[in-house]
């Protein structure tokens, strides 16, 4: 027995020796090439076998390599695979680099993502490198010049102002034209929901530093999956998520100042001497005698030493500061991203500032290979002060021109002058310095945006996901007019308290199946079906009161003696939708896509509450064809096209949630008795405006895609436009809203990106240009509609100015002249006799951006130039600031070029006090070319050497200096305002666009 046991032990020992001799243990660590930190979850496979291991949280691994195997394969999603020969080594450390091609392959789309080769639509993406650490409040401002076909215009320089975004033109007249915004799968409410502030932007609550990417969907193949809300394009915002590995911290801070962008020479005002000189001349031309002129000029400040530069007093060098701290990390099971941010900005106009506090927490957890959970959460609070705009007497920007240079802003004791008596009293226009200190116009906007969801991998390629998202807005607005000076003087002070609460939720359930079609080699399909519901409820409280205590220390309406208004209202809408999409791809060459969505909306009548929306798209990856493999220069060639139908359910001032309903309202007084009456005629047949976009495009890549070009041509036809049709007054109403119009937008887009130099010195460049032509093709009864300064006429652009044509100045008399007829064959000196004609448009013919980044030995220089050509703009208050029709306001310096004697050749008429010849009335004289080129962003940064930063336990440190809107080139020397005047081309004495200069630091550890 002992002999048997000894023999058995000897046999086992021999076998163990044989196994040991046939296998080798290899260990090591896998790290990220850029950060040097360990990568968890990397697959380490012995090539040619199923033997392998997975790296731990710090990137370590250990694997037993069978005999006769000498190669390890390292694989990690997003990184280039690497094969390493063992060659008898027991320790092998590996560094993995990001696979740029693989990263570029994934494209975010509506309700999912796809690879670039299977994309049939027109989609553009802006990455985090173009979004973070920028001195602007909201992400929509950062899109200017970054995406071909996307027009981003800021009509106001107020921090937190609403930005106007148009994708492929203006698609509606009476409904909204803003795109749909989706943040991490949640459809959100955007735009300006304030009621007392001049402008605010809900997107300003989202910190751009927390955004990973912005994807812009432009054609039917990409937008029709959003059905009735895809007509104006869709902007998908994806926030940052955690990455498995050691926790990474990032801290950035930026400090600097804001100032006015260059004031055009034509927009400068007269000083006291010049204004008194022009006023004297105007009085003489008006026939006044010297005996009357001199005393009157003395009452206007002649002989005093007062020479007030109101622009200098009203503007300032504002401060700007930003702090951002984030952390991300986790393991193969749980990943997180958390951040906090503080943003402060003062505009270069007194009384205009914003402060934002924001925070983000995103979590992803994988239970097992079947189940995973995720959540996103963003919270922010904005405190914003905004001054009046337009013709309001309290508008500090208007005061620059409306107040006189001979008015003294201060009393002898240094206090603000609010004296109302005499010609120089502040009775009509107010002293803005006093109002900034004693009036209030501010808002506090709290925004909560988040979602929770789960995914279930039912089988290979089959996944179900469910998500519920919430977009909550809590807006408190306060306005107070003091009882001593300004708008509140005649009321003993006036106070307003407005409260707005919006609760918007979205629930989305999706089933996605990606599979290879049985029996057909290399034919794959990707099918998604889903159900989505959305409901948004708004609640408003409005209150106001006057007769305040005689002090500016008590500003709440609770202390006022006379309540004026108290009301509470509600407003809501809902959507219910089923959706589907399918992609079929053969051999990565031919791709066919289709989508269908059926929407039901509470915004439309019972006769047309549901609508069907769809798209078809196709693409051909020519570069995957066998016959193309010998073409070395062209690395990518893709042809694509799409067509479909989507809708426009966006709100506007003319179209609300209950427009379709016949409404009966109470609270109407008749002979001091309560009563009721019909308040809205309604239309139960009301339905969506339909958008039918066609797109054809090409994607080209040269020299292994070092140079890439994308070009698109599109036609989008919008039918069933909402218009008010006149009806008989016997109904109790004058119009009824119906679907009876049509318009078209057609244009092209070209984007070029490249890496001309990619060595120690690197140069990355991108350029985009877009051209859009808008045309109204159908109006009610085919008749023209006059819309203020514009005309709606079949065959013309929607924003065509309707105006009398300026013919110049009579050199013999200095009288203004206009063309009597559209053909300019005869002039007239009577404004009312001049023909009013369509003249140019506020819509640009060409716009885009040009970006260049240069890198060398740690230094990086980045410059973004944006441009805009082919549109016209106007200053809506210029008629006060030229000629003599309104003599008791300051004048643009161009008045110095006025006609003075017979024979003078000039475009500025004779200056006459209280002029009544309408020379300053709206005509082509007051329209200017809006062409401009602007240096939107210029940044010089330096990455400190690695050996420096490692000594203080940092992985990266970058210092930089940045300038925004540093230079602007305008092409109309007579333009008195900034050329960015909004999509309507009308500047309304808003806070001007500012420039900013900042110094920043960004460190990682």
TrEMBL record:
Task: Report the residue ranges that make up the TonB-dependent receptor plug domain in this protein.
Answer: 117-234
Family stated for the protein in its record: Belongs to the TonB-dependent receptor family.
A Pfam family (short name) is TonB_dep_Rec_b-barrel
Task: Name the predominant localization.
Answer: membrane
Species the sequence originates in:
Pontibacter toksunensis
Membrane topology per the record?
Answer: Multi-pass membrane protein
Known NCBIfam families for this protein?
OMP_RagA_SusC, SusC_RagA_signa
The signal peptide stretch is 1-21
The identity of this protein, by name, is: SusC/RagA family TonB-linked outer membrane protein
């Amino acid at each position: 027995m002992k002999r048997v046991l000894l023999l058995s032990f000897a046999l086992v020992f021999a076998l163990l020796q044989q196994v040991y001799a046939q296998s080798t243990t290899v260990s090591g660590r896998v790290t990220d090439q850029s950060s040097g930190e360990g990568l968890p979850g990397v697959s380490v496979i012995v090539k040619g076998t199923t033997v392998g291991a997975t790296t731990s949280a710090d990137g370590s691994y250990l694997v037993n390599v069978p005999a006769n195997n000498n190669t390890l394969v390292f694989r990690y999603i997003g990184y280039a695979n690497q094969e390493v020969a063992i060659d008898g080594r027991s320790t092998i450390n590996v560094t993995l680099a990001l696979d740029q091609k693989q990263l570029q392959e994934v494209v975010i789309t509506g309700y999912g993502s796809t690879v670039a080769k299977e994309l049939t639509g027109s989609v553009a993406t802006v990455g985090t490198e173009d979004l973070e650490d920028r001195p602007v409040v909201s992400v929509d401002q950062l899109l200017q010049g970054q995406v071909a076909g996307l027009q981003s215009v800021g009509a106001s320089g107020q921090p937190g102002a609403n930005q106007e975004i148009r994708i492929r033109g203006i698609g509606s007249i009476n409904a909204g034209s803003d795109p749909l915004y989706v943040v991490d799968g949640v459809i959100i409410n955007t735009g300006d929901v304030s009621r007392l502030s001049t402008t605010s932007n809900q997107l300003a609550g989202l910190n751009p530093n927390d955004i990973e990417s912005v994807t812009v969907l432009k054609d039917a193949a990409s937008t029709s999956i959003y059905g009735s809300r895809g007509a104006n394009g869709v902007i998908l915002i994806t926030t940052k998520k955690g990455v498995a590995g050691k926790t990474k911290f990032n801290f950035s801070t930026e400090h600097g100042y804001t100032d006015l962008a260059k004031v055009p020479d034509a927009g400068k005002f007269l000083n006291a001497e010049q204004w008194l000189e022009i006023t004297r001349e105007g009085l003489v031309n008006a026939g006044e005698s010297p005996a009357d002129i001199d005393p009157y000029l003395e009452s206007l400040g002649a002989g005093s030493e007062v020479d007030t530069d109101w622009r200098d007093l009203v503007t300032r060098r504002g401060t700007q500061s930003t702090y951002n701290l984030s952390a991300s990390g986790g393991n193969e099971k749980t990943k997180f991203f958390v951040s906090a941010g503080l943003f402060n900005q003062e505009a270069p106009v007194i009384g205009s500032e914003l402060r934002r506090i924001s925070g983000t927490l995103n979590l992803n957890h994988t239970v097992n290979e079947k189940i995973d959970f995720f959540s996103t959460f963003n919270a922010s609070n904005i405190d914003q002060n905004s001054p009046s705009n337009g013709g309001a007497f309290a508008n500090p920007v208007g005061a620059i021109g409306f107040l006189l240079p001979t008015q003294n802003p201060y009393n002898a004791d240094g206090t603000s002058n609010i004296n109302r008596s005499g010609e120089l009293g502040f009775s009509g226009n107010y002293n803005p310095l006093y109002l900034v200190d004693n009036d209030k116009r501010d808002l506090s906007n709290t925004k909560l945006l988040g979602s929770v969801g789960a995914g279930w991998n039912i089988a290979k390629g089959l996944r179900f996901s469910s998500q519920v998202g919430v977009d909550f807005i809590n807006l408190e607005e306060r306005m107070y007019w003091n009882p001593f000076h300004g708008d509140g003087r005649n009321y003993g002070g006036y106070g307003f308290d407005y409260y707005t609460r919006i609760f918007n939720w979205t629930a989305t359930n999706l089933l996605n199946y990606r599979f290879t079609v049985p029996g057909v080699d290399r034919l794959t399909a990707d099918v998604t079906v889903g159900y989505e519901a959305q409901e948004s409820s708004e609640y408003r409280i409005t209150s106001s009161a006057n007769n305040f205590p005689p002090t500016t220390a008590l500003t709440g309406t609770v202390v006022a003696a006379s309540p004026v208004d108290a009301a509470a209202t509600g407003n809501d809408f809902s959507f219910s939708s089923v959706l589907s999409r399918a992609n079929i791809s053969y051999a990565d060459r031919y791709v066919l896509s289709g989508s269908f969505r059926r929407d039901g909306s509470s915004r439309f009548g019972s006769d047309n509450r549901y609508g069907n929306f769809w798209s078809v798209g196709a693409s051909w990856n020519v570069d995957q064809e066998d016959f193309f493999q010998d073409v070395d220069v062209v690395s990518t060639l893709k042809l694509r096209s799409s067509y479909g139908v989507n809708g426009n359910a966006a709100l506007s001032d003319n179209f609300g949630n209950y427009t379709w309903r016949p409404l009966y309202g109470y609270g109407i007084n008749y002979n001091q008795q309560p009563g009721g009456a019909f308040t809205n005629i309604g239309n139960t047949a009301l339905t969506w405006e339909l958008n039918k976009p066609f797109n054809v495009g090409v994607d080209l890549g040269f020299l292994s895609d070092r140079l890439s070009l994308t070009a698109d041509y599109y036609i989008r036809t919008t039918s069933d436009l909402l218009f008010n049709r006149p009806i008989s007054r016997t109904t109790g109403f004058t119009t009824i809203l119906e679907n009876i119009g049509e318009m078209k937008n057609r244009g092209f887009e070209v984007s070029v990106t490249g890496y001309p130099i990619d060595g120690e010195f690197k140069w990355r460049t991108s350029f985009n240009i877009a051209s859009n032509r808008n045309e109204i093709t159908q109006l009610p009864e085919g008749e023209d509609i006059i819309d203020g300064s514009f005309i709606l006429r079949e065959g013309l652009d929607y924003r065509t100015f309707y105006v009398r044509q300026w013919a110049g100045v009579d050199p013999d008399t200095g009288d203004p002249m206009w063309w009597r007829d559209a053909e300019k064959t005869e002039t007239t000196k009577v404004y009312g006799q001049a023909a009013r004609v369509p003249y140019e448009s506020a819509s640009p013919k060409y716009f885009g951006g040009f970006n260049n980044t240069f890198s060398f030995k740690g230094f990086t220089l980045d410059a973004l130039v944006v441009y805009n050509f082919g549109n016209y703009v106007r200053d809506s208050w210029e008629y006060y600031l030229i000629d003599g029709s309104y003599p008791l306001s300051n004048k643009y310096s161009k008045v110095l070029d006025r006609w003075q004697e017979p024979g003078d050749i000039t475009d500025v008429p004779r200056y006459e006090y209280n002029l009544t010849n309408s020379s300053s009335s709206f005509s082509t004289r007051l329209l200017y070319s809006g062409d401009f080129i602007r240096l939107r962003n210029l940044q010089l940064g330096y990455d400190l050497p690695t050996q420096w930063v490692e000594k203080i336990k940092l992985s990266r440190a970058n210092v930089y200096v940045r300038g925004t809107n540093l230079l602007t080139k305008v092409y109309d020397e007579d333009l008195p305002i900034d050329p960015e005047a909004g999509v309507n081309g009308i500047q309304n004495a808003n806070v001007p666009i500012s420039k900013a200069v900042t110094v920043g630091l960004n460190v990682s550890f």
